[in-house]
């Protein structure tokens, strides 16, 4: 009851005309910036941090929350329409959203994403209000073996359900893991795969990899096949979801938050793993497996809902423990410290107006995001009417701008082109792109957690399975790997009977 009373007080703060204005500005700016490849919510919040020096803390963080959610939706927009993720959390949206757009259902894909963000963000924020202390307590107990097991689960899950074969999925994952090795060893300081270049010592940013594999690789692939057909304009389609679409997506919208929120809440979490796992779960549960890879709307609704709920989950450990789990919350933590506020267990007592006003603004931001972007879905979808030579020239331009903005180095543009050529080759030989991106995102963290777990156990492999949580995750992995064989055996048994 105390939490509900505090939340109502927070709505009183968030619904003032000035704070509503900051929320609307944040949503609009976040969506606009999220559309640009490579410039995600973290960079948006960082760029706008100096602008908020003259604002009171409540207004500043309400605007930050709007930017966070708006940028996540903006990233999914370019993923769906142009196969160009605006940030790493939007990678999965391209898998089914882009085929939908190419078949004239881009407006439906954007609508499913917008409603998914609303459902996931709303349910995630409700869970934030109700479960923040409990989830934070559980997160503290998760150790290195548990993290490594979760990452292995993500690797196995994605490589086993994508592509024409598991071998190709594994090959794509190995490409990503290799790219993730570039740079300095975090523990020994030794250079790995840098070829003596100081520019590679910090590694290859995941944004450059994602934009290179998706955007540049896609542009090169289209250019290589452009002369084979006249390039008919892609139809925009109807602007709203049909009853059949709603029947297929409402369960995915509700399942996504319960996958995304816990992963966002744990330290070193984020939206990447839950979006991958939500995609896998929806594909396993789908009654139309033949549509996957060709535009299954559940593959957009579930991961987008999980991503939005994960964004709410990241605020749990940041507000209650002072531990940022994503780049955005790290920037927000710096903003808290700029105002002389230290997040932690006492924050809810010392800065109750700020915290509950921020949480209430998350609900307000979700409503604004849905109200602004759902009617605009057909407008966004009309981007596909642009002639393909101009469209992909624009994609290459914004991809280059996004890659250059990451580090401000010309070397990044060269790396972007090389990775784009790798993406082109992967399309040529039927390798799925997503496992490669997953390898870059999670590979360095998986290596770090593996080495940390082995150090704790003095090099004993049993140290990887010395917790009930890790054993449970590895059991899930075994079931996931054995399921196709078990299903075939059951099918043969039924047919033989």
From TrEMBL:
Domain of life: Bacteria
PANTHER family for the chain: TRICARBOXYLIC TRANSPORT PROTEIN (PTHR35342)
Residues annotated as transmembrane: 20-49, 61-82, 109-140, 147-164, 170-188, 200-223, 258-280, 315-336, 356-377, 389-407, 413-442, 463-486
Any Pfam family the entry gives: TctA
Coiled-coil parts of chain: none
Domain DUF112, first and last residues per copy: 20-438
Keyword vocabulary terms for this entry: Membrane, Transmembrane, Transmembrane helix
Protein name per the record: Tripartite tricarboxylate transporter permease
InterPro entries in UniProt: DUF112_TM
Species name: Streptomyces glaucus
């Amino acid at each position: 009851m105390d939490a509900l009373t505090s939340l109502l007080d927070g709505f009183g703060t968030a619904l003032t005309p000035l704070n509503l204005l900051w929320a609307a500005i944040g949503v609009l700016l976040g969506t606009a910036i999220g559309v640009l490849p490579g410039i995600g919510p973290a960079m948006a919040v960082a760029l706008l941090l100096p602008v908020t020096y003259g604002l009171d803390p409540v207004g500043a963080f309400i605007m930050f929350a709007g930017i966070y959610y708006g940028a996540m939706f903006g990233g999914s927009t370019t993923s769906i329409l142009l196969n160009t993720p605006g940030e790493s959390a939007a990678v999965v949206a391209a898998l089914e959203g882009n085929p939908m757009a190419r078949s004239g259902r881009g407006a439906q894909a954007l609508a499913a994403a917008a409603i998914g963000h609303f459902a996931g963000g709303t349910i995630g924020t409700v869970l934030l209000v109700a479960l923040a202390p409990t989830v934070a307590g559980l997160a503290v107990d998760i150790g290195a073996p548990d993290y490594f097991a979760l990452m292995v689960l993500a690797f196995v899950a994605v490589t086993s359900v994508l592509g024409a074969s598991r071998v190709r999925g594994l090959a794509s994952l190995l490409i990503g893991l290799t790219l993730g090795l570039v740079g300095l060893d975090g523990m020994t300081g030794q250079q790995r795969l840098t070829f003596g270049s100081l520019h590679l010592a910090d590694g290859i940013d995941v944004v450059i990899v994602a934009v290179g594999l998706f955007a540049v690789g896609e542009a090169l692939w289209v250019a290589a096949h452009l002369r084979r057909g006249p390039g008919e304009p892609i139809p925009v389609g109807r602007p709203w979801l049909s009853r059949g679409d709603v029947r297929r997506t409402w369960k995915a919208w509700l399942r996504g938050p319960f996958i995304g929120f816990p992963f966002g809440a744990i330290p070193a979490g984020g939206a990447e793993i839950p979006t991958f796992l939500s995609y896998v779960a929806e594909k396993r549960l789908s009654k139309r497996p033949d549509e996957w890879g060709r535009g299954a709307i559940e593959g957009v609704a579930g991961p987008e809902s999980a991503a939005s709920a994960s964004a709410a989950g990241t605020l749990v450990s940041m507000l209650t423990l002072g531990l940022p789990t994503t780049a955005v919350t790290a920037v927000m933590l710096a903003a808290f410290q700029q105002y002389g506020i230290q997040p932690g267990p006492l924050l809810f007592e010392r800065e109750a107006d700020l915290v509950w006003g921020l949480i209430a603004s998350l609900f307000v931001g979700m409503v604004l995001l849905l109200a602004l972007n759902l009617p605009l879905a057909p407008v966004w979808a009309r981007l596909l009417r642009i002639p393909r030579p101009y469209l992909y020239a624009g994609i290459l331009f914004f991809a280059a701008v996004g890659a250059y903005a990451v580090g401000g180095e010309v070397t990044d543009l060269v790396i972007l082109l090389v990775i784009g050529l790798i993406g082109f080759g992967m399309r040529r030989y039927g390798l799925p792109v997503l496992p490669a991106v997953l390898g870059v995102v999670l590979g360095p963290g998986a290596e770090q957690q593996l080495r940390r777990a082995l150090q704790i156990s003095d090099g004993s492999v049993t140290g990887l399975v010395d917790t009930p949580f890790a054993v449970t995750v590895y059991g899930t992995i075994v079931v996931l790997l054995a399921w196709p064989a078990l299903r075939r055996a059951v099918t043969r048994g039924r047919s033989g009977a």
